[in-house]
Give the backbone structure.
Amino acid sequence: YGILTERQYATTVHCMNNTKEAFTIIVQRWEDKQGCLFDEYKYKYYVIATNEYEKDPQEIIYFHNARGNSENYNKELKSGFGLEHVSTQDIFANAIFFKLGILAYNLFIALKRLVLGGDWIKKTISTLRWQLIFIAAKVVFHSRLLFLKLKSSYFYLFNSILSKIPSALAPPIS
């Protein structure tokens, strides 16, 4: 339902001057792992203001954190897939451009979740490009055959990925 953290929280209700509506403030604090020269600054604080009175504070915190993560998804779409600018003046061409970009993003997410798994799920497209695509290799043509020579660790990684693809594409057994 959310990410377990070592944060403590407290709530209070606040009403600003010259207003009739009060709102709930949720204050989170956690110990600063970097440490600080002065003891009175050993905690960091974060505040969420909300008008959701009936909800549990933990539920509001989890909802708030999930919304914050959606900004990362938007950033990945824009910077990782080149969707920060329109490519032409033609609205229909731009619509196709964005649809193809979103399709590529969805295929990337499917690859991470269905095939790669593990720590790969958290990686961005630029990291995946750097660690899987932009690797040193040598193309060798020998005896009418084409070979791709890789470092042995990459060879095992690629074989592992290739072996997972058929099961990821198979329809679920009912």
Q: What stands out?
A: The two ends are 27 Å apart (CA to CA). Residues 91-174 form one domain.
